[in-house]
Amino acid sequence: MERFIDPLSVHKFAVGVSMDLQFQKRDSGQIVLPGEPLGVIEEFIPDAGTYVKDGVIYSKVVGRTLIDYLNRRVSVFPITRGAKVPKVGSIVVGQVSSVQTQLATVRIFKIGKHMLSGFFTGVLHVADAQLRFTESMFDVCKPGDIIRAKVISEKNRMYHLTTKDKSLGVVYAFCSKCGDVLQQRGRRGLQCSRCGNIEKRKTAIDYGKGII
Description:
CATH 2.40.50.140, 4% helix
């Protein structure tokens, strides 16, 4: 059974938030060892894979950090043998972190049915976005969107993606004006039920169905 992921929770995680200078060097996805300090209880709420001693939060396991600066929570997810990595042909899910006219960057957090404890970086070029000609990546996706794609290359140690299939594309999009989840209106149009804003995306056939 597929796991349901709250798209708003994932979106909040990626929202840019000013970091506390004391822990500016600590970020999600870093490998930590047992006993490594992650923060203090005045700044963060300790979560899975951590323990507290004298007000300081430490890693309890060898794993990767997951630091939610918005909700001030810190976790460590254990690294297991045979950890999944993207390969050519893998179907991945990630969140769009940046978009330019020709290129979008995606933070991959799921490979097939397997959630990851850290992130891999993928890139989606405008030529690989749709079967038809697409002039700008801003008509395909925008920062914060959750997207399903296929890995087509690992050239230069970068995961190159495609969304040229009806099952691939944006599965959840967020309004550029108010941040609410966009609802599908017609074949390619998406509309915000809160502010009425209409935007374009290259959506997957199951857009907004709740399964990521």
